[in-house]
Design goal:
With 311 residues, the protein is mostly helical. 61% of the residues lie in helices and 0% in strands. α7 packs across α8.
């Protein structure tokens, strides 16, 4: 259960400054971008054969699916050139913003705060630009909302934070299969027991419900652009319920991943097994009074993108 026409990314990265690392924990969800009947049809109305088949788009997907971080600068440069040449193509600008978000989520070695700050500005500019070019694409809320929420938190700007939350809540009403998951993710690291954290749990339960009723929606299944969407989503769902102290639900979601199509070729089986082995400890640390010992959720690790998208 995730969303990504192209892909919410998020991760707390230890190779940059603390502020950049915190901002990088934006939003990463997984989902197939392929057209499908139902809620996704209007969201894909601005997608064209030209942008989908453009060399820059193909290079982005090839790099993401192979988890090729070394290719990120070239991918971004290619998408920047394509967007400059074809500003009317919303998909090219959206992919540019997402490529930058991928790099922000897992910065290269030696990345400095100034460079990452400029990258963050590009993410916001291009996601907003894609939304302006294609206002019918309700999926953009799943990336733009978390970016604004995180930016508002880091800068202490409540207006910006609330703008992001409004975008997420409105997006969840229009496209619950895709956007509810991002709403849960951006609130998942709020203090346990806080109203914001409880909203994360409620949003995830709602997402599970709508995906159960519409399991063919590309946000709820494995697909060509997110070969392990279900497995990666199961990890996040288990992590969130473990943090909430619901050990039975956490175990159920972790174990469910083992029986899903594609599990045998998933590269992160060891991560899942570690969580099942140490589940009681994960729950105990999450529930005690010391927030500094809370186990990292998958969305705050370098696996945040690859857990769903890597082949």
């Amino acid at each position: 259960m995730t969303r990504l026409t192209y892909s919410p990314f998020s991760s707390r990265c230890g190779r940059a400054s603390a502020a950049v690392a915190a901002f990088a924990s934006l939003s990463m969800s997984c989902a197939s971008p392929e057209p499908a009947p139902g809620p996704s049809a209007d969201a894909l109305a601005c997608r064209t054969a030209f942008s989908t088949g453009h060399d820059a788009s193909i290079a982005f997907w090839n790099a993401l699916e192979s988890n090729d971080h070394a290719a990120q600068p070239a991918v971004i440069a290619g998408l920047e050139a394509a967007h400059t040449a074809h500003p009317e193509e919303a998909e090219l600008e959206l992919l540019l913003g997402l490529a930058q978000l991928w790099m922000l989520a897992d910065p290269p070695e030696g990345a400095d705060a100034a460079a990452m700050g400029m990258l963050a500005g590009g993410v916001l500019t291009h996601l907003q630009g894609a939304q302006e070019t294609c206002p019918t694409d309700s999926r953009i809320a799943a990336w733009l909302g978390p970016v604004l929420v995180r930016m508002g938190r880091l800068t202490g700007n409540e207006t910006v934070r609330m703008q992001g939350m409004t975008i997420l809540e409105e997006g969840a009403e229009k496209n619950p299969e895709f956007v509810l998951f991002s709403l849960a993710m951006v609130l998942a690291d709020e203090p346990v027991g806080s109203p914001a954290f409880e909203r994360a749990v409620d949003a995830l339960r709602d997402n599970i419900s709508v995906c159960g009723a519409a399991s063919s929606d590309p946000a709820c299944t494995n697909g060509p652009r997110a070969a392990h969407n279900i497995q990666g989503s199961s990890i996040f769902m288990g992590d969130l319920f473990a943090r909430a102290g619901d050990i039975d639900s956490a175990r159920a979601f972790y174990e469910s991943a083992r029986t899903t199509p594609g599990y045998d070729t998933w590269n992160d089986q060891a991560m899942l097994e570690e969580r099942l082995t140490n589940l009681e400890m994960r729950v105990a640390f999450s529930q005690d009074a010391d927030p500094t010992n809370d186990p990292l959720m998958v969305t705050s690790t370098s696996h945040a993108c690859s857990v769903c998208h890597a082949d």
